[in-house]
Write a structure and sequence with these properties.
The structure is a single chain. This protein has 92 residues and is α+β, with helices and mostly antiparallel strands. It has a domain at 1-45: YefM-like fold. It has helices at 7-12, 14-24, 43-64, 73-79; strands spanning 3-6, 28-32, 35-40. The protein has a 3-stranded mixed sheet. The longest helix has 22 residues, at 43-64. The chain is elongated and about 65 Å long.
């Protein structure tokens, strides 16, 4: 679980927060108005997070490659109930 701290207090205690993260193994979430703003994590945690992102990128590529072909623009307009179409000045 992460330790939460308001941004105003984090400014004043930055050196202590860094020590908590590096030496205490904690994760610190800096908040503004009670909402998470940023997180302080160790370099080792960041490296693990970045390594875990790589397979997700591969999953996206494989998912996109399985999409069906688009139907004609007229069929798409009918499918979504679009009755009007904007044509720019070059179409006149």
């Amino acid at each position: 679980m992460a330790y939460e701290i308001p941004v105003t207090q984090a400014r004043a205690e930055l050196a202590d927060l860094i020590n908590r993260v590096v030496y205490g193994g904690e994760r610190v979430v800096v908040t503004r108005h009670g909402k998470p703003l940023v997180a302080l994590v160790s370099a080792a945690d960041l490296e693990r997070l970045e390594e875990s992102e790589e397979p997700a990128d591969e999953q996206v590529v494989s998912s996109v490659s399985t999409l069906r072909a688009l139907s004609s623009p007229a069929a798409e307009r009918q499918r979504f109930g679009i009755t009007a179409e904007h044509r720019g000045p070059e179409a006149r």
